[in-house]
Every structure is written in structure tokens, then in C-alpha cells.
Amino acid sequence: MAQVPPHSRIPLDLPLDHVGSDACSVDNPASGMIREILARVGDKWSMLVIGVLHDGPLRFTQLHRKVDGISQRMLTQTLRNLERDGLVQRTSYPEIPPRVEYAATPLGTSLSEPVIRLALWAAEHQGEILAAREAFDEAE
Amino acid sequence: MAQVPPHSRIPLDLPLDHVGSDACSVDNPASGMIREILARVGDKWSMLVIGVLHDGPLRFTQLHRKVDGISQRMLTQTLRNLERDGLVQRTSYPEIPPRVEYAATPLGTSLSEPVIRLALWAAEHQGEILAAREAFDEAE
DNA sequence: CGGAATCCCACCTGATACTG
DNA sequence: CAGTATCAGGTGGGATTCCG
User: Fold this and answer.
1) Which pLDDT score, from 0 to 100, does residue A102 have?
2) Using the CB atom, is residue B42 less than 7 Å from strand C?
3) Nearest residue of chain B to residue A136 (CA atoms)
4) Which 91-130 residues of chain A approach strand C with CB closer than 7 Å?
5) Share of chain A above pLDDT 70, in %
6) Would you say the pTM of this structure is higher than 0.85?
7) Are B14 and A35 in contact (CB < 8 Å)?
């Protein structure tokens, strides 16, 4: 299931030094950027919303159902942040009853790919993580 | 980068179902797992630690200096979590004065790659995000 | 239907002090 | 050096209620 998607054109010889060394070290101001992005993307819900919106626009209530466990408050807040960052576009139709659609922007869609990488990594290594966790918990 | 039409209903050859909740079972093991991974990866310090450890093992105080702004408490806690998940290996040398080394495991190193993709995405689109943010803030 | 406003608390986090 | 212990403040996020 971990096959590389056909339209993925990310070179696999990615330089891994970009986080740890001079190109982008933690002493470097660039790390602030990383931290900020991870904060945005890594919050409890943003990535899941981006994920479900990749398939197409959804209404508020549809999103509420699709993203399991999210509260109304958090969904609203998350959508606001994503909209603010240009990752999601909100379109309101002045009808009765009111209808509001949320769609991923091209920018938001482009974010899906790295997010999916992470998801794949998680899927691939979840067994190892769980095993390590059990071993650790049992050893103490 | 891979251009994807914003609202295309093209079937995803990427297993995006692991991100949302719909394609998973009711209990959503995959979604919960993703969420958990994102929680680990997205917390304030884990990735920075993984990042600096990518270059090689470091001692506690070295880490403390390299990861700017982290408190002793959070460094300890972060390292414990990473160790528990098998991402970091802790080695204690019974010497005087005591010496403890932290090294990224192969699993931890493999995590760097998707994270770096995220960082690269951030670097690439940071300008767009900031512009969108300014436009949004100004419009309200 | 799609929110906004309010209440409230668990937990995250930093600061400080102490220990083997 | 490499932590642990304790306290205190801020905040993330759920539950509930109300509104256009």
C-alpha cells in the first residue's frame, strides 16, 4: 500500500540535511518558520480537514460529520485559520436555508501531498511505534 | 511541483483515505493513528529534536543548547516520548560526571524525510501564506 | 443551517529549586 | 552533568446556549 503515487514527482534523493545542518538549522531563523508551519499543520484538526477537502468542496455540516470527533467550535476555528492562510476558500450562498461551502485552494491541495507522506509514514511504521511503546512501558 | 486541479474529482491515487475518517471503520483506527502521529510530530519540540539528532548523537546539555528556547523540563519530556516511541535511543554511560547520549534510531531518521517534505513545502509556500494572511487580516 | 458567545477545566508549559 | 519535584499561569478544546 506504500506505492509511490504515479503523479508524485518528488525526487527521492531529497537532502536530509535540510533540517539538522547549516541549510536549515535550529539556530537558524528558518527554524522559526518550520515551527510555525508545524504548529499550523500539526494542530489537532487542520490536516484532517485539509485531507477530507482534497476530494472536493464540502458544506459545514458535511465536514462536521466527516472529521470524526471534532467539535463545532474547533471546526469553525480550524476553517477560519485555514481560510486566513489561503488554504481553504469559503463560499457563502445567500439562500434559505443558508449554505456555505468550503473548498481547498490550489495551495491547500498542494499541502495535501506532504501531509499524505506523513500519513503514509505513520501507516507504515505504526506497528514499530506501538511495539516500541509496549516494550518501553513494560520495561519500567 | 505536482499540479492538481483544485476541485477535481479525479480519483486519488494517493491513499488519502487515511487522513479523513470516512473511509475508515467506525472506530477509525487509522484516523486515530494519524492523529496521534501528528500530535507527536506537531508538538512544539519533537521535530526540532529529531532534526538536530539527524546529524548524530548528542548529549543532554548539547541538545539543550541546540534546540533554542526549550526548557529543561520539556527537553526531558520530549526525549522520553521519542524514546518511548522508538524514535530516539538513550544511552547512559555510568561515569563521573555522568554522560547520557541521545541518538536517532533508524525509525527516527526515517521520520525525518516526510517532515522535511513538510518543511520544504513550508519554505516554498511561505510567501503565499503570509500574503494570504495579510490580505485576510486587512479585509476584516 | 452555520455559526458566535459563554463557561469551564484539563493539560501544556515555563520558572524555580533541589538531587545523585 | 543530567535530571526530578513543585508550583503557577496560560491556553486548547469540549459542552452548552443563543442567534440570523
Assistant:
1) 98
2) no
3) B84
4) 92, 97-100, 102
5) 76
6) no
7) no
CA–CA separation, B127 and A16 (whole Å): 23
Q: Omega before A97 cis (within 30°)? A: yes
Give the C-alpha separation, B93 to B79, whole Å.
Answer: 17
**Mean pLDDT lowest among A28-32, A92-96, A123-127, B122-126:** A28-32
DSSP B129: H
The answer to whether the CB of B35 falls within 8 A of the CB of B29 is no
Contact yes or no for B16 and A123 at CB 8 A: no
- Scan for cell 485555514, then name that residue: A82
pLDDT at B42 over 90: no
Please check whether strand D approaches the CB of A74 to within 7 Å.
yes
Query: Chain A residue with minimal CA distance to B53?
Result: A20
Say what the pLDDT of residue A116 is: 85
d(CA A40, CA B72): 24
Cβ A36 vs Cβ B43: under 8 Å: no
**The three grid cell numbers given for residue B37, joined into one nine-digit string:** 502521529
